[in-house]
Design goal:
With 197 residues, the chain is mainly alpha-helical. The protein has one domain (3-196). The chain is built from 10 helices and no strands. The chain has helices at residues 3-22, 24-43, 45-55, 60-90, 96-123, 129-137, 139-144, 147-158, 160-171, 174-196. Helix 2 (24-43) runs antiparallel to helix 4 (60-90), helix 2 crosses helix 5 (96-123) and helix 4 (60-90) runs antiparallel to helix 10.
């Protein structure tokens, strides 16, 4: 075992312990809630921006960013509360132990994905030869580096009909959407000025 194995092992243990404390259902609700919060905050970005601009005099891009953050954080807090309530209810039943074990398994998977993404990121960097050799010689690195590509590949196979929409929503940052809205507002204003002449 070298230092690369030690780092990967630390990541895995950290997420396993986190999964053990949170349980399967709470962890799953938190994970799904995160992506849904991003998706919904992006979808209702313009509505929130318009509401903010009714009461505050702010630049359009700033209002859009604030609107995104408010929706995202409120939804994230809501899913956190739901997850905590579900965990408490489940642990009052005989399946509480299964929830704990499932949480550990989900934590292991999450840790493996994080470690895999980290290794993929390191693979594109011009690392010193000694560091690259340490990574190549690491048994845990060889075992985990393909987890993220495998999981994401399976998700794309299972949900091809929503892949493009999710990618469009998640990959387009709030700043990009705000910039688009500023351009649209500018075109509308120009057209109104032209018609008033």
């Amino acid at each position: 075992m070298n230092w690369v194995d030690a780092i990967i092992l630390f990541i895995l243990i950290f997420f396993i312990v986190k999964g053990w404390r949170r349980g399967f259902f709470r962890s799953l609700i938190g994970l799904v809630g995160f992506f849904l919060s991003v998706f919904l905050a992006t979808s209702y970005l313009y509505w929130a921006k318009g509401l903010i601009l009714r009461f505050f005099s702010l630049p359009s891009g700033v209002a859009a960013l604030i609107g995104f953050l408010i929706i995202f954080l409120v939804l994230l807090a809501l899913f956190h509360i739901i997850g905590s309530m579900v965990q408490r209810i489940v642990h009052l039943t005989p399946i509480g132990i299964l929830d704990t074990l499932g949480g550990m398994g989900l934590g292991l998977l999450a840790g493996g994905i994080i470690a895999s993404l980290l290794l993929l990121f390191l693979s594109i960097l011009p690392l010193p030869e000694e560091v690259s050799c340490q990574i190549e010689e690491s048994p845990l690195a060889r075992s985990t580096r393909n987890i993220a590509p495998y999981v994401f590949g399976k998700l794309k196979e299972e949900f091809p009909e929503i892949k493009d929409e999710v990618n469009r929503k998640l990959l387009q940052s709030p700043l990009d959407k705000a910039r688009e809205q500023v351009e649209i507002d500018s075109l509308i204003q120009k057209e109104m000025n032209r018609q008033s002449r």
